[in-house]
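Lab notebook page, bench 4
Experiment: in silico fold of construct C2
Operator: M.H.
Input chain length: 562 residues
Purpose: comparison with the prior construct
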Amino acid sequence: MKKLSGGQAAVESLKVEKVEHVFGLIGSATMEIFDALYDATEINFIGVHDERTGTHMADGYARASGKPGVVLAGQNGPGATNLVTGLAQAAAAFSPVVSIAGALSSEHIYRDAFQEVDQQSLFKPVTKKTWTVTQTSRVPEMCREAFRVAMTPRRGPVQLNLPRDVLSDVNVFPAFQSPKSYRSQSLPAASRESIETAANLLRTATRPVIVTGGGIKNTGGHEAVLSLAEALNCPIATAPGHGDGIPFSHPLNAGQMGPRGNPVASRLVKEADVILALGTRLGFNSTFYSYDNINQEAKIIQIELESTALGRYFPIEVGIWADAPTVARQLCEALKNSEAQEDVERWTEQYKHERATFLQQRDDDAQSDVHPIQPSALYKELRAVLPKDVAVTMDAGTLCLQATDALNYWQPPALFTPLDFGLVGFSFACGLGIKLACPDRSVVSLMGDGGFGMTLSELSTAVDHGINTVTIVMNNQCWGAEKAYQRDFFGERYIGANISSPPFDKVAELYGAAGFRVDRVGEIGEAVQAALNCGKPAVIDLAVDPKALYSFRRDSFKHRGG
């Protein structure tokens, strides 16, 4: 039995969960937690400058490590409201972020007290579950529940509100439970009947393709998929944002499909007669919910751990509610004695030829001799210089959207994006969390000048804690996506699209980080190599042609005749 304050009990719960890092911003509402963290030498507290960016760090840490990422908003009210964007982003990525915030004292609720906001209602739309602890004695129980729910498939963020009186009151607590006593130890598999039905469809397919999504990437299930693809001799397309789910080096990896993917992978899904969708919803970024991006005649076998995702957007032939890597292994076993089909051989050989031609053409078409720097030249240089262990983070925006399938990802997981939430200002902070999860890997964050301007105060966090990532600011002096739409659909009537920024390389140096400036293509490789090797957080301010704009969502402006 232990006599502890509520704040001490919360920290004991973190210790039982073997939490290594807590990202957060100090505040008076949670002083008991911070005081307990002072003595918890096994937990590294990363003090941030904004709760939003702290949540992105926890999100990146969770995605890269597969463990819960923990963020602590020390202040109720404004400290808590700053979490909302980060938690909405984590929810879109099914990222297990455990968010803890101080809350108003119980006796002051509904009295228009200082910094009062209904945090219980505030967080419900952007989390898997939100709790407000009502008694000090229940702090360990609610902490256990928070970690359990965050880590239960499909994973996602949770919010725990801890009122001031709950944290300051003292209670006698029994022994804290091990996570094994409240964490699931297995994942569901497919039935024999559903495996046989799916296997028969795949045996008779002449143009099969596998489409993988977060259910493969987030589980590290690529080996199972590769074994299955090799047994079928069929290509693999990946959902946008999950192009790193399969190592680039594998010859059956076609890359990202759909309206934001490459033409080779996209053609496969438009022409396939059987589509095996492994751990993907076939949702917005993959299809725009349109048969323009998927063969309407194809028979779809969909495997998802979230039952409501099965057949939600497209009719399916077989729907299997199970863990995607587990089903991939089951299918591989069922198909191990199947004979190769000549039609499939021709289909896959044609794909391999197209893929090789596309990759060569991608390099040949890069405008390396043009000034100012064109995106294609930048991506070609990055393909050549980035190490194979690199983890890449990106913002939303057209430059980053182009980069997702323009770079090569060798070591899953290696690509971290805002996915369907489309957030700007995510990349740099996310990279800091990934570096703490994977300290031996290189981490490179790509973002525009607008997005970096939102979050550059975390440079001091990176310097203070020795989190040595490289941020490449693709500086085109504008909000590129919106400026492209104003150019293409609104007669170049620009308003709010152009922005100015300080020299980010000099700003980095003022923070104590390393700064590099790049104005020409020939300088890119040397600058990136120097930044990776400098032993400090590094920022490369890289001038990209402001006129190199691209309207990704042309479908949004069909009504304007574009």
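Observations: Residues 342-365 form the longest helix (24 residues). The chain has 23 helices and 20 strands.
Next step: discuss at group meeting.
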